[in-house]
Specification:
5-stranded mixed β-sheet, D-amino Acid Aminotransferase, Chain A, domain 1, 6 domains, about 700 residues, 25 helices, Helix Hairpins, 5-stranded antiparallel β-sheet, alpha+beta, single chain
């Protein structure tokens, strides 16, 4: 991976811009992936295709390979799935429910086999005596669940959630006929598997929705996931979901292979996919994949690939895992189905940050089970790169069988009447002249009062990553803004039940329900409040760090914390904007963005005061270490780079603060020490160039203790 990563064009561009550019791009990618993951795992409503998610994730991995300092425990590369939604009780998994690394080609699978062999110390070429064989199983496109049985009786079921903590959906799982409520033996075990919606059931539900004029569901995967996560188990029962189980956790069990575990699951009464093979070498795995490439379309359920696992469990244990995936398994993804259609027009749409996204309007065509008439083209550079023109015949796919994507144009079908798309000179909503930053790919409307931007900002503010106001969806916000009931974020908290009852299709009960949801959101954690503001360059991780910094830096007083924080941020923004670099991971670019947002003339001017006056009282986190010096590192600035054996990044920075020092995310002439661990990246070179003192982990421990290191 490392050689490929270092040659990645995106990384090459980041290198040209320097470490700060890489950090900014990393933050942008991390936010985009986190947002997409929340929609996919938590809301069952993806906005981007699997292929686009994989592309973003690959670039993030490549950046972290080239710049190891960017790899933190909060990075999406170190996480699995999405956080529990909060609707259900939480369940702590007995063992992590990991995701799988993906393969898209024979080369990817051969690289996986080579990594496995290296990890086990086996010859590169297969030998009969090496004991390495694989199990190949069809990959089910559903929702991962964990089932726990006590003395043979179904006791509890949970979703995967973030891999460590899931949601308790026991009542809903009991309604699925294929999940046994009682096993053939009185054993206490746990299983892992997938819940999915069969194709026939998906078609039945969509036909019923069409009859009553409701929008149809996009695909079986998200329909099944949404069905399982219903508050009312009766809704789940009405959807006729199914399940396959593929992992057994049996304390004291005698199974030694994955293939034996699958047979054991069957003997206990679990549904196990019969379309699997064991005892395979890599060539046989490739043959299994090829046999299902087309045959999968004849199955009564969706499968988007094949999971390949090392069969012997002792070898799995030896190989272990990385942060988010086992080293002994990989998921091969089938290429998506492609069709041809006519691109009738390209229309730009305005997003939350003002970005204009060109969207293809297509002649309706059926692909991967549903009719498609729209597909995002991302930006003008992408349109030019693919040479897509209005009037073109284009190749369309639903990558991952979910989100429509224009793959390429068909120039050979052109008649001469096609025309190139040009970005509008003015915003299609507010007529403000469009801006394109020099060297950037995006075009955007700079008007913060643009109705399209305002509506998107409110949607972000009320969404799950922010204040999480259940029921405050797009249609509701459109009415509130359109009728002038809400003009600022604080106005949401000033709404009365009667205001909400006046909305279209709202009765007293629904108005009271939404009003209660708004009231509950007044006490969100401070990091959620900050994340909800939609500050450029500030994602979830930075919001957490910013909240903990503010907890220790905002002066005490009688006024509400949010009001005091607003005055403090405005003062820092106008008088000492470099103070924002005290926040872990914040460099000059992000500091400038914070200063611009919280400045007296910035878009955030008055926002926190408005929320405070409306009665929003966030939960304040514990400060991140002492804010003042006084220890052995009093007044000194340290930068940590690479991997340390005895500290994670946050622990090292907390130790610096506890010793009175200041941790920084970037090396400059003001840096006193660079703490260099293994795989130190560009910061080490920068420190050597500037003559900054470089110390190792042992020396770091000594300076923390106030001992000399010369």
């Amino acid at each position: 991976m490392s050689d490929t990563a270092l040659d990645d064009p995106a990384v090459a561009r980041a290198r040209e811009g320097g470490e700060e550019a890489a950090r900014a791009r990393h933050a942008e990618l991390a936010d985009a992936i986190a947002h997409a993951s929340r929609l996919y795992y938590e809301q069952d409503a993806p906005e981007i295709s699997d292929a686009e998610w994989d592309r973003l994730f690959h670039e993030l991995v490549a950046l972290e390979t080239a710049f190891p300092d960017l790899r933190t425990p909060e990075s999406p590369t170190q996480r699995v799935g999405g956080a529990p939604s909060g609707t259900f009780d939480e369940v702590r998994h007995s063992r992590p429910m990991l995701s799988l690394a993906n393969a898209f080609s024979e080369d990817d699978l051969r690289a996986f086999d080579a990594r496995v062999r290296r990890g086990l110390g086996l010859p590169a070429a297969p030998q009969a005596a090496d004991g390495l064989t694989y199990v190949a199983e069809l990959k089910i496109d559903g929702l991962a669940v964990s089932l726990r049985y006590e003395r043979g009786r179904f006791a509890q079921g949970a979703t995967r959630g973030d891999g460590t903590t899931g949601e308790d959906v026991t009542a809903n799982l009991r309604t699925i006929e294929s999940i046994p409520k009682r096993l053939s033996e009185a054993v206490s075990i746990e299983t892992r598997g997938e819940v999915f919606m069969p194709k026939a059931e998906f078609a039945r539900i969509n036909a019923e929705r069409e009859e009553v004029g409701l929008p149809t569901y996009a695909n079986p995967r998200n329909s099944g996931a949404g069905s399982l996560r219903q508050i009312d188990p009766g809704v789940t029962a009405s959807r006729r979901l199914a399940s396959w189980q593929y992992q057994l956790i049996e304390p004291g069990g005698t199974t030694t292979r994955q293939s034996e575990a699958l047979a054991r699951l069957e003997s206990l009464g679990f549904p196990v996919n019969p379309n699997r093979l064991a005892g395979l070498d890599l060539d046989a795995v490739l043959g299994f994949i090829e046999s299902w490439r087309q045959a999968r379309h004849n199955l009564p359920y969706e499968t988007d690939g094949v999971v390949v696992k090392v069969d012997r469990l002792d070898l799995q244990d030896r190989l272990g895992m990385v942060a988010r995936a086992p080293r002994w398994a990989i998921a091969y993804k089938f290429p998506p189905e492609q069709v041809e259609t006519l691109l009738e027009d390209i229309v730009p749409y305005v997003g939350r940050t003002g970005t204009l996204t060109p969207v293809a309007h297509l002649a309706p065509v059926k692909v991967a089970g549903s009719t498609v008439a729209r597909a995002t083209l991302h930006n003008l550079d992408e349109v030019r790169r693919k040479d897509i023109r209005i009037g073109d015949h284009v190749v369309l796919q639903k990558a991952g069988d979910v989100i429509p994507e224009v793959v390429r144009s068909l120039p050979e079908r052109r008649t001469g009447g096609e025309r190139e798309f040009e970005m509008l000179p003015t915003c299609p909503v507010c007529a403000t002249p469009i801006v394109r930053d020099e060297g950037a790919v995006r075009h955007y409307c700079p008007n913060p009062a643009c109705p399209a931007r305002v509506a998107q900002e409110f949607a972000h503010f009320t969404g799950r990553g922010g204040m999480d106001i259940e029921g405050a969806g797009w249609k509701v916000l459109e009415q509130l803004l359109g009728r002038g009931l809400v003009k600022s974020r604080g106005d949401l908290f000033r709404l009365a039940v009667e205001d909400l009852e006046s909305l279209d299709r709202f009765a007293r009960r629904s108005a009271e329900s939404l009003h209660q949801a708004i009231e509950r959101s007044r006490r969100r954690p401070l990091e959620r409040v900050l994340n909800s503001l939609g500050i450029a360059q500030v994602g979830w991780t930075t919001a957490i760090d910013l909240a903990r910094w503010l907890a220790g830096a905002v002066p005490a007083g009688d006024a509400p914390f949010l009001e005091r924080a607003a005055g403090f941020l405005r003062q820092v923004a106008s008088e000492a904007p470099d103070r924002f670099e005290e926040v872990p991971g914040v460099g000059p670019t992000v500091a400038a963005s914070l200063a611009a947002w919280f400045g007296a003339d910035g878009p955030g001017a008055g926002v926190l005061e408005d929320l405070a006056s409306a009665g929003v009282e966030p939960e304040i986190p514990a400060p991140r270490g002492p804010v003042a010096g006084g220890g052995p590192l009093d007044g000194r600035t340290l930068v940590v780079t690479g991997t340390l054996e005895g500290f994670d990044r946050q622990g090292a920075e907390d130790a610096i603060r506890m010793a009175g020092g200041k941790p920084s995310g970037s090396v400059s002439r003001r840096t006193d020490y660079l703490v260099a661990g293994e795989n130190a990246g560009s910061k080490l070179a920068k420190a050597q160039e500037l003559g900054v003192r470089v110390i190792d982990e042992e020396q770091f421990r000594r300076v923390l203790a106030g001992e000399p290191i010369d």
